[in-house]
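User: I'm new to structure prediction. If I give you an amino acid sequence, what do you actually give back? Let's try with this one:
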Amino acid sequence: MSNHNKLDHLFLLIQSLSKSEKINFKLYAGRIKRNKNAKFIKLFEIMSKIHFYNEKKILEYTHISKMQLSNMKAHLYKQILISLRLQHTEENYDLQIREYLDFAKILYHKGLYIQSLKFLGKAKIIARCYESNTILLELVEFEKMIESQHITRSIYSRSGELSVESKELIERVQCHDALSSLSLELYGLYLKVGYVRNEKDKIFIETYFRTNLPKFDIEKLSFYEKLFLYQAQVWYHYIRQDFIMCYRSSCKWVELFQNHAQAKKIAPVSYLKGYHYLLDTLFYLNHYYKFTKVLEQFENEVQNEKIILNGNTRILIFMYKYTNRINKHYMEGTFSEGVKKVIPPLLKDFKKISNRLDSHYIMVLYYKIACLYFGSGDNQNTILYLLKIMENQEKNIRQDLQCFARLLHLIACYESGLDENMDKKIQSAYKFFIQMDDWYIVQKKIIHFFKNLGDVYPHQIKGQFKKLREKLLKYSDHPYEKRTFLYLDIISWLTSKIENKSVEMIIKEKFIKNHC
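Assistant: Good question. You get back a string of structure tokens that encode the predicted 3D arrangement of the chain. For your 516 residues, that looks like this:
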């Protein structure tokens, strides 16, 4: 798909519409007789049928001039959004609140203050029910303004009540804002650099977390305040590679939703993310049986439609379902089985939503696929997917993922016999590590190993693999160096070269020994 398809917002919006949403739009647009043959309707119809954005075809079938197209697209975009808002108001509490607030403002400007206050009252009931404190504060402030400026015949104590309510809400909103901001900042740091790389990173993240975490009483926190607290704790422990604490916080995250069944419908994206980080920490802790139990529980909830399906949740379900299925095959050492069972449906589903996937998700998925192929012995496909990561020029892609993709690329090229330009590949990887300030002992030893391998006689190679494994084993539990082993099971690869077995066989034997 071309970049232009990805950048055309109207095309992406129309492609995301369900069958019922398309029917509803036609009914909405067709309510006015003169709209039936309108150009924006013709534009909608042709863009609903095409699979790729094609401006030439659009102009040909709609009789819209090239000069008109931009304005016509903007008009259609707005009309679709209005149609969607009308269709989904009842099922979205925040849209209901906004609708009541809009009605209240219209009535206020008409001078109908009592009627305006009634709609504000309805909006406040919904806002309290869903703990929407930010908009609730807006409603209270509007109510205060009406009460203070106009004679509404309200009881005398009402002004005092509104003042107290406003102060309490401001305190709650401040706590909510502090926790949500902390959660977001920590998540942003993780996406940028991944795990802590050194003592400087560790001190920075610990200081940042400590100084930005507001004082709170856990018993008095609302649902969303607890959610943001657990999210912040998960990112914090995740970045520090403290997976035991990360597991505890992600458990609280998921349990919070399971104790508030209604919240699964209100914030399904956060519920799915909690599940994913619970599974991710279990994977890194190598708790296979607990992992498989939680994965089965997650997939049952999805299959039984206990989680609301919409554009956002479909993307996350796709990502989390396949990444954790791949992780399960990693743990078992069943890479070849994973390639056969997971890759075909994954690629089929990927085509359907690739234009709506964030670059970060795509790169993570490519790395997972590359590792699965590597474990199965398919170095050609390993290299293919690693190059997709290495050739990505976007600055916001996790630099740790880029670094480890280059390490695995060197190994896969060596394994596949594509070592004619090995010196250039090693030099390129070396420069990238320096540029990214990600040049640590384990990476250095792997790079130096490949650099010196060309000077080693064939009968000495196995001895070199043994030496490298002995050196690297010392760092497998190092607080900062161990991050390499989370991305790349370099020890199993070295063992496979020493014992003349496949990587798949080495990991499978290890799994059987530890879990059977």
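You can read the tokens as a compact description of the fold. Here is one thing that stands out. Confidence is low (pLDDT under 50) at residues 1-6.
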